[in-house]
């Protein structure tokens, strides 16, 4: 599946599909490739692009508020997530974080409590082309850990976007290899403090917490300044090492 773009419009289409719009009928060739330009029967041209991470964020089916790319970037930068890593993720949601990690080459096992949300996440992984590298499980990771610890194994990275993050963090040494990373995305200060205290109780090292803020800049004839629109704060990020 590719992204077909024209003047701010974006459509996800596969080879052989047909799109009907006010710009005309677009018949996608079977041999279409990124970089091609395909025209409708009215001569309106669309540029063909491969899907990148931000495109997935924009076009995934959503089951809630997904993690923002800027937060995902901090997670990948601080933990050095890379090809060959095993990642355990709790709180799949839309699956944006899992998709980014898998596209970087990691193998991801992600837990989602809501079966319907899990089905949506699986479809999103297929859309991203990494369904074979992301296993979406329904349930609670600590329940599976209690039932059969050997079934999960150990991971290079544990990522948490769930209300019970402190409970999982307390068991990090059962889940993460020595020197591996634990990270939690938490929307509120109270939950962040609880996660930090859990990391200390678990004996994790190099505990750091950040608030993620971002301001877009506006440049016009009057001058330059941060934009007054948009979301500045998204959440808090905890990082620690096993």
UniProtKB/TrEMBL annotation:
User: What does the UniProt keyword field contain?
Assistant: Methyltransferase, Transferase
The keyword Methyltransferase appears for this protein = yes
Q: Which SUPFAM superfamilies match?
A: S-adenosyl-L-methionine-dependent methyltransferases
Q: Could you tell me which InterPro entries the record lists for this protein? A: Methyltransf_25 (IPR041698), SAM-dependent_MTases_sf (IPR029063), tRNA_MeTrfase_Gcd14 (IPR014816)
Q: Which Pfam family is one of this chain's hits? A: Methyltransf_25
Checking CDD domains in the record gives:
AdoMet_MTases
* Record keyword Transferase present: yes
One Gene Ontology molecular-function label? methyltransferase activity
What are the Methyltransferase domain coordinates in residue numbering?
87-180
GO terms under biological process: methylation
Q: Write down what this protein is called.
A: Methyltransferase domain-containing protein
């Amino acid at each position: 599946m590719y992204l077909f773009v024209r003047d701010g419009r974006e459509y996800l289409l596969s080879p052989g599909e047909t799109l009907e719009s006010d710009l005309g009928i677009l018949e996608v060739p079977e041999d279409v490739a990124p970089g091609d330009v395909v025209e409708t029967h009215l001569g309106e041209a669309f540029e063909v692009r491969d899907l990148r991470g931000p495109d997935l964020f924009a076009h995934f089916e959503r089951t809630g508020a997904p993690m923002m790319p800027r937060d995902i970037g901090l997670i990948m930068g601080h933990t050095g997530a890379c090809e060959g890593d095993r990642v355990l993720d709790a709180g799949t949601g839309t699956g944006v974080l899992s998709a980014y990690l898998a596209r970087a080459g990691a193998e991801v096992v992600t837990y989602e409590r809501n079966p319907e949300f899990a089905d949506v996440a699986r479809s999103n992984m297929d859309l991203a082309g990494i369904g074979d590298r992301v296993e979406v499980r329904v349930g609670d990771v600590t329940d599976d850990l209690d039932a059969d610890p050997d079934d999960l194994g150990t991971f290079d990275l544990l990522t948490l976007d769930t209300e019970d993050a402190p409970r999982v963090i307390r068991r990090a040494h059962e889940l993460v290899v020595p020197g591996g990373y634990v990270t939690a995305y938490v929307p509120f200060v109270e939950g962040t403090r609880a996660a930090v205290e859990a990391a200390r109780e678990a004996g994790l090292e190099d505990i750091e917490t950040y608030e993620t803020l971002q301001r877009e800049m506006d440049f016009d004839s009057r001058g330059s300044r941060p934009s007054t629109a948009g979301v500045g704060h998204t959440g808090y990020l905890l990082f620690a090492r096993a």
